[in-house]
Structure formats: C-alpha cells, structure tokens
Specification:
Blueprint (H helix, E strand, L loop, with lengths): L21 H5 L11 H15 L3 H8 L24 H17 L8 H13 L16 H11 L12 H7 L14 H9 L21 H13 L4 H10 L20 H23 L9 H13 L5 E5 L12 E5 L2
Antiparallel strand pairs: 1-2
Helix pairs in contact: 4-6, 4-11, 4-12, 9-10
C-alpha cells in the first residue's frame, strides 16, 4: 500500500527565511556611531515592510534576540548623513493620515454639498458673508496637503520610502508625483509657505505636468465607451493594458477620499493606519532591547505639524528616558 505524505501547510509569510532571521539584523542594528550605511537602511526598510504585512511573529522573535536593537532603526538622528531614515517615518505617516482624515470628517460642509448649502444659508441669514462655495473644500487646507505630501511624497534622498507604499496605493499616487522635502531645503521652504494656497493637482512634480493618472471610474468609463463602439471586452482590456491605461489607487472617485462613494475604502484605510500604529507599539515594547513610545508626544507633534499653531506652543529640552524608544531631545509645551 502506497504511503501518502501529508501536504505541508503553505507559508503565509511574504518574506524568505533569511530576511526574517536574526542573522539578518544582528550586524545592522548594533549600537555605535558613524555614517549611515546600506545595511542599516535596508534593515529599516525590511522592518517597515514586515510591519505593513503584519509579520508580527517573526518580529517578536527578532525583538527577543539580545543582539537585535530595533531602536537603532528608529530615527535619522542615530546616524550621520541619514536624511529620511527611520521607523519613526512609518509612525508619522500613519498617525498624520489617521488624525487628519478623522478631523476633516467633523466638518461636513467641507465635503458634502447639501451640508455646505445649509451652512452658507445659515451664514447669510446671520448677516455674515461666506466665502465662495468652491473655497469650502478640505483638500484646500494646509493640513490635508501636508498630510498628503508626508504620506505619499518621495522622501529626501529618494531611498527610504517603504512607509509611503500603502498610502500611495490608497490615494492613487505614482512614485515621484509628489515630493517631501525638509524645511531647510529650497523646495521645502517653498512648500511650507505655499501649502494651502493652491489646489492639490498643482502640488505635483513638474515631471507629472499634463499627465493623467486614471482612476477605477476612468477605466470603467473607457471600457464602456469601447463596448458601445462594438469592441469585445477582452480585446478592450488588452488594448488598455498595452497602452498602460490602468487604474492607480483604491479610490473609486480619485483625489477625494471623503466622497460618499469612497466611504468603504476610507474606513478600511483608517483601520489599516490604526493597525500599523498598534503593531509598532507592540514591537517597541517587545524583547530585551525594547522601549515605549511616548504617544502623548507623538500625537502632539502630529497635531502641531498638521495644523501649524506655532504661537501656542514651543519646544523645550527633554531628558531621554531609558525606556523611551523615541529618543526625544525636545518636546512640545503648550503656552496657556
């Protein structure tokens, strides 16, 4: 009688064994000082990817290793010449997106036409002169545009960008369409002064000027038009594929996350951002070299970054606590 070998369960991991092994991270996370090197950068991008894919079991095993120091991957301040580096960028992007979009939903007059009509009528009845209706748009706010550039923009140096992948997929932003620069660069200073003064499509990099990025509805409309011309659906799909006319992003209605047709995708996106934050919190607390994130400081920084209230806050020096993984040397203080 032939012996039947039971089928081995398929691995659900997205990464090969070596990429999840301690040997991969021991050398690249060892304490020390010096310039940024490729090993640390690649290890950081690898951890970002594992967090985004939910590879928590593997990360917990790595965190339990006495010679794996994830805190060395936290912030660009750990190394010289390391602009854009760090797991903190994953937290910043997810937290800003989660806060910004949730806050914007509290102002329905900025995205719902019926509510806007009622708001304008009430303002007029009260003797106050409202702005033009086209000005009541959450996408024209500095906060939204800052969040969009921070989450989807190609970072300074064009190398440490894994944390932007899920946000680019959601908003439908191709690589390089937006750029995120530091305030001490010429383009960064321009962004700081001009965000909120122009429309989102005007923020795109010059290489995307005049470039149409199709949405799901655009592709469906073209297929419908070709079908009316008598072209079989299969052939129409092949034509669009050859032409590179494929939808980018998860939103049915492009460039408008708060549109009613995008409600389900928005719910899933915000849920995913929350998952990222909880995963990074668990990883920070895990293992012999773990620490804790100061979430009060993280949220405060996100709020002040988004809504820019410099007259009501200042920085003061802060002693870095032994178990704080954020390595904060400054903290926000509200002026009462």
């Amino acid at each position: 009688m032939m012996e039947i070998t039971p089928r081995q369960p398929r691995s659900t991991t997205s990464f090969p064994p070596y990429e999840r092994s301690a040997a991969r991270f021991v050398c690249d996370t060892m304490p020390g000082e010096g310039d940024m090197f490729d090993g640390a950068r690649e290890a950081c991008e690898q951890v970002k990817a594992m967090l985004m894919h939910g590879e928590m079991d593997a990360l917990f095993r790595l965190a339990a290793h006495p010679r794996v120091y994830f805190r060395r991957l936290w912030h660009e301040g750990q190394y010289a010449n390391s602009h854009g580096f760090g797991l903190s960028k994953l937290v910043d992007a997810a937290l800003q997106a989660y806060i910004c979009l949730n806050v914007m939903t509290l102002k329905p007059q900025l995205y719902d036409a019926a509510t806007l009509d009622a708001f304008v009528a009430s303002e007029t009845a009260a003797g106050r002169k409202p702005y033009g209706k086209e000005e009541y748009d959450y996408r024209l706010t500095t906060a939204y545009q800052k969040m969009l550039l921070h989450c989807t923009g190609l970072p300074y140096g064009h190398r440490c960008e894994a944390h932007t992948f899920p946000h680019r997929e959601y908003f439908g932003v191709p690589r390089g369409m937006y750029r995120f620069e530091y305030d001490d660069t010429q383009y960064g200073r321009w962004q700081k002064c001009n965000l909120g003064t122009q429309r989102v499509d005007e923020l795109a990099h010059g290489s995307f000027e005049g470039v149409h990025v199709p949405s799901k509805l655009d592709v469906a409309s073209v297929l419908n038009m070709l079908g009316k011309k008598g072209l079989p659906a299969k052939l129409a799909l092949q034509m669009l594929d050859l032409a590179g006319y494929v939808s980018v992003g998860r939103l049915p209605v492009r460039d408008d996350p708060l549109h009613a047709s995008n409600a389900e995708e928005l719910r899933m996106y915000l849920s995913y951002c929350w998952k990222l934050l909880t995963r990074i919190d668990m990883l920070c607390k895990a293992g012999v070299n773990g620490g804790q994130l100061n979430w009060e400081a993280e949220v405060s920084d996100a709020l002040y970054t988004l809504f820019d209230m410099p007259s009501h806050s200042l920085f003061e020096n802060a002693i870095c606590e032994q178990d704080c993984i954020g390595w904060r040397y400054r903290r926000r203080v509200v002026i009462v």
